[in-house]
Design brief:
Blueprint lengths: L9 H21 L8 H23 L11
Helix pairs in contact: 1-2
């Protein structure tokens, strides 16, 4: 979605930034750094939740952007 620009670039960017955070949070949780339900874990999961919500709303309201094929 980022390269094809079917949705605004900010939506996939939030997901691309949030994915490493959620992986890091899961790793720290498995290693005993913090509890599974904690403030730090919730803050790390916030970008992914924002991405999922915004993508769902965008696709429900606007849908994908129409694309025009390049004729070269």
């Amino acid at each position: 979605m980022y390269r094809s620009r079917l949705v605004p670039r900010v939506i996939p960017t939030v997901g691309l930034l949030g994915a490493p955070l959620i992986i890091m949070s899961a790793t720290v949780t498995m290693l005993g750094g913090w509890d599974q339900v904690s403030i730090a874990g919730s803050l790390c999961a916030l970008p992914i939740a924002l991405w999922e919500f915004s993508l769902g709303v965008w696709l429900t309201v606007k849908g994908f952007r129409p694309t025009t094929p390049d004729i070269d």
